Amino acid sequence: xxxxxxxxxxxxxxxxxxxxxxxxxxxxxxxxxxxxxxxxxxxxxxxxxxxxxxxxxxxxxxxxxxxxxxxxxxxxxxxxxxxxxxxxxxxxxxxxxxxxxxxxxxxxxxxxxxxxxxxxxxxxxxxxxxxxxxxxxxxxx
Amino acid sequence: xxxxxxxxxxxxxxxxxxxxxxxxxxxxxxxxxxxxxxxxxxxxxxxxxxxxxxxxxxxxxxxxxxxxxxxxxxxxxxxxxxxxxxxxxxxxxxxxxxxxxxxxxxxxxxxxxxxxxxxxxxxxxxxxxxxxxxxxxxxxx
Lengths: 141, 141
Prior knowledge:
Two copies of one chain form a homodimer. Chain A has about 140 residues and is an alpha+beta fold.
């Protein structure tokens, strides 16, 4: 199958909204208002582990993770980035990048598995996506 | 300060035991018998975020993460690798690589923050460290 056959996992699609497409990954915002939380999904068919990506694309993945982390640090309060690739529930390879603040709901534990997501309001979700897209696409309008 | 000034965080030192030194990272086994769980600690002073490492050393870090993941897959049952860089409690940069099995104590949640560690027996800890060191150092005796 070619890259054109890539389809986002339905659960990831339901839990997040699109921010921007980078060369390798779709970058999506988790609809969880308590933590600014992005996921990167390499648009390749059949990936589960990071090592399933060819080495050159692994390098691109980590560059894009850095870029996403910098965009979060530039747009929201952030005491610590949390980066994780788990995949115990959704096996399609995806990398989480979460901006954590001391004293946030799950602090100092992980956000994964903490409690059901609390969604943004529709305007706040749109505004957060726009701000992050602008930070990730500095040359865009 | 030079690399020679690097000192392992005391909490990481207390929670884990040394397995092998790779070119960039100390690889250590967490003393938690319920999950085969390694951490990689880049032996550099003052790192907190992955982006604090120069780009070339970031590439080395991810190569070493791959190598550690492959060593786990070769030596213990593993349905899914979990890779994470959190640092909410211990700020010194360290990357977790955990071999997860469906139905393990924390499954499908993360191991971080799940419950207090259950230590290995001393012989089991030593045996696990030896097996992982052998898998990570195939040319060693």
